C-alpha cells in the first residue's frame, strides 16, 4: 500500500515496525462541545484507514485519547482551558461536560459506523504518566521551569519544525483573542508541559506535582498516552491537518527527546471540511453537528458516503446542496446493492477481479472515491447477483456504508415520521416560540398544500397525511 507521509511529503510503501502488526494513535476529541461534521470527517477517514489495514490482514491496535483537560483556547498556550469554557457555558462541572460530550461523540461515531478504538483514554486518567514523562524531560535537560510552569526547550533540538511547512511566524497565529504572549518562554516556540496555579487560577481540575498544584499541557497527553499503550515505536499517528502544528510538532519533540530515538514512521493528516466562509470550527460557535443533519433528514451514512467521495488530502467544501446530492446518490446505491438477490453460484474469479480493482484504489494513498467507483462497477458488471452481492459485501467491510441493508425509508416514516416533515414541524415550533406566528402559520399552510395536516397535542405536534 502506498500511503502519503506528511513527515516526508511523499507517498511511501507502507511498512510496520513489527511484521503484520500496526500500532496507530489518533488524537481524540476535545470534549467541551459536540463534534462538528468537520471533526467527524477526520474520524471517518481514519476509520477507513484502520478498516483497510484490517482488510489487508494486519493486526491493528488503535489508541485514542479524550482531551478533557489542558487544551487551551489558543494553541500557543494562552487563554482559558476549553473544558472550563464549556463548563461555564452550560453551568456544569468540567467532568459533567466531559462525560456528556464523550458519550455524544461515541454516539455520533456509532451512527457513522466508525469503529471504536481498542483503547480510549481520557487525559485526566493519566496524570501520573504525564508527570513521569515531564520529570524525565527535565532530567535530560529538555525542559525548564519558569514563572511556575514547566516548558519544553525547543532550542535543545537539532530540528524542531519537522513537518517543514511551519516556522516561528506561525506561532503568532496561535496568539490571538487579545491574549498576551507568554514572557516566561526562553524561545518563541517553547511550549508548556505543566501549568501551575501561578497562572490561570480559575482552572477547575488540578493535581499535585513536583512543580506545584496544576495541570498538564495538551501536547504531553498524546505523547504519554501513545507511549503507554503503543510502546516506543509507533507506526501511524493520525489527526486533522490543523493538528500538524504546533500539536504534532510538539508531540514529536517531546516523545523523541524522551525516547532518544525516532518515534513514529507515518503521519496521516486529514484535510479540513470547509464551508463557503472557511474552516468549520467549534470555537467559531457556528458549526453543523450530525444531529442537525439528521433533523434535516440526512442519513448519517450519507454523510460518510459524502466524505468517501473525496480524497482525504483535499479540502472538502460542504454545502447543503452537495450533501443532499450525495444523500440521493447514496440512497440509490444502497437500494441497488440491497436489491441484489442471493442467486447463482459465486464466481471466485470475478470476485477476485472486483477485489483487485478495489484494492488498487485504496492501495493508492486511500483513493476512496475510486473505491466507490469499484462498487458501481460491480453493479454494472455482467455477473450473477450472488457474485455481485459477495463483492459488495467484501468492499463494505472497509466502506461500512451498510450497502446490503435495505434502505429504511418506508419503515422509518411509519415509525418515526418523514424527516422532512419533522424538520418543518420543528421549524414551526421554533417560530412559535419566537412569537413569529406569521411564519408558523405559513408552515402549516405549506404542509396543508401538500396534503399534510398538523395535529397539536400537549406532548407536541404530530401529523397525518390526507
Ligand atoms: P478537537 O475536538 O478540536 O480536538 O478536534 C478533533 C479532530 O478534528 C482533530 O483531529 C482536528 O484536527 C480535526 N478537525 C478540526 N476541525 C476540522 C475540520 N474543519 N475538518 C476536518 N477535521 C477537523
Ligand atoms: Zn494529540
Commentary on this structure:
With 466 residues, the chain is α/β, with parallel strands linked by helices. The protein folds into three domains: 16-270, Rossmann fold, CATH 3.40.50; 304-399, Up-down Bundle (Four Helix Bundle (Hemerythrin (Met), subunit A)); 419-465. 45% of the residues lie in helices and 18% in strands. The chain has 16 helices and 18 strands. It has helices spanning 37-55, 82-90, 94-111, 127-139, 168-174, 218-230, 244-259, 290-295, 300-308, 320-338, 348-363, 368-380, 385-399, 409-416, 419-433, 437-449; strands at 2-5, 10-13, 21-26, 59-66, 72-74, 78-81, 119-122, 143-146, 149-152, 191-196, 214-216, 234-240, 264-270, 273-275, 278-279, 316-317, 452-457, 460-465. Strands 7-4-3-12-13 form a five-stranded parallel sheet, with helices on both faces. A four-stranded antiparallel sheet has the order 8-9-10-11. A three-stranded mixed sheet has the order 15-14-16, with helices on one face. The chain is flat. The N and C termini lie far apart (56 Å). Bound molecules: adenosine monophosphate (AMP) and zinc ion.
Amino acid at each position: 500500500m502506498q500511503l502519503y507521509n506528511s513527515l516526508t511529503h511523499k507517498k511511501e510503501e507502507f511498512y510496520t515496525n513489527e511484521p503484520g502488526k500496526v500500532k496507530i494513535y489518533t488524537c481524540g476529541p476535545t470534549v467541551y462541545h459536540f463534534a462538528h461534521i468537520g471533526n467527524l470527517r477526520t474520524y471517518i477517514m481514519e476509520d477507513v484507514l484502520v478498516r483497510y489495514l484490517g482488510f489487508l490482514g494486519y493486526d491493528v491496535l488503535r489508541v485514542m485519547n479524550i482531551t478533557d483537560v489542558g487544551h487551551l483556547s489558543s494553541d500557543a498556550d494562552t487563554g482559558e482551558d476549553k473544558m472550563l469554557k464549556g463548563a461555564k457555558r452550560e453551568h456544569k462541572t468540567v467532568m459533567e461536560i466531559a462525560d456528556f460530550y464523550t458519550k455524544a461523540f461515541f454516539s455520533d461515531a456509532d451512527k457513522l459506523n466508525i469503529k471504536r478504538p481498542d483503547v480510549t483514554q481520557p487525559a485526566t486518567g493519566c496524570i501520573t504518566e504525564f508527570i513521569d514523562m515531564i520529570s524525565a524531560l527535565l532530567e535530560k535537560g529538555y525542559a525548564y521551569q519558569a514563572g511556575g510552569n514547566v516548558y519544553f526547550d525547543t532550542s535543545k533540538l537539532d530540528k524542531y519544525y519537522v513537518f517543514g511547512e511551519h516556522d516561528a511566524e506561525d506561532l503568532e497565529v496561535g496568539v490571538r483573542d487579545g491574549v498576551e504572549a507568554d514572557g516566561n518562554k526562553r524561545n518563541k516556540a517553547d511550549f508548556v508541559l505543566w501549568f501551575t496555579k501561578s497562572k490561570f487560577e480559575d482552572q477547575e481540575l488540578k493535581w499535585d506535582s513536583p512543580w506545584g498544584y496544576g495541570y498538564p499541557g495538551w501536547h504531553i497527553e498524546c505523547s504519554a498516552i501513545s507511549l503507554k499503550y503503543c510502546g516506543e515505536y509507533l507506526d501511524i499517528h493520525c489527526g486533522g491537518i490543523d493538528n500538524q502544528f504546533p500539536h504534532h510538532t510538539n508531540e514529536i519533540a517531546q516523545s523523541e527527546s524522551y525516547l532518544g530515538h525516532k518515534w513514529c514512521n507515518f503521519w496521516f493528516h486529514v484535510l479540513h471540511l470547509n464551508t463557503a466562509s472557511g474552516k468549520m470550527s467549534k470555537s467559531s460557535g457556528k458549526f453543523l453537528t450530525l444531529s442537525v443533519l439528521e433533523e434535516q433528514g440526512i442519513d448519517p451514512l450519507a454523510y460518510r458516503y459524502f466524505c468517501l467521495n473525496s480524497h482525504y488530502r483535499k479540502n472538502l467544501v460542504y454545502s447543503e446542496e452537495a450533501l443532499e446530492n450525495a444523500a440521493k446518490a447514496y440512497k440509490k446505491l444502497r437500494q441497488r446493492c440491497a436489491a441484489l438477490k442471493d442467486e447463482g453460484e459465486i464466481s471466485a474469479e470475478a470476485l477476485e477481479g472486483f477485489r483487485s480493482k478495489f484494492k488498487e484504489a485504496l492501495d493508492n494513498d486511500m483513493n476512496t472515491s475510486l473505491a466507490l467507483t469499484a462498487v458501481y462497477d460491480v453493479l454494472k458488471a455482467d455477473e450473477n447477483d450472488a457474485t455481485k452481492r459477495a463483492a459488495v459485501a467484501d468492499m463494505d467491510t472497509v466502506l461500512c456504508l451498510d450497502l446490503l441493508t435495505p434502505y429504511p425509508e418506508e419503515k422509518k416514516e411509519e415509525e418515526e415520521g418523514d424527516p422532512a416533515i419533522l424538520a418543518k414541524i420543528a421549524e414551526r415550533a421554533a417560530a412559535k416560540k419566537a412569537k413569529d406566528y406569521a411564519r408558523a402559520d405559513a408552515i402549516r399552510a405549506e404542509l396543508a398544500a401538500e396534503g399534510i395536516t398538523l395535529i397539536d397535542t400537549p406532548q407536541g405536534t404530530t401529523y397525518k397525511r390526507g
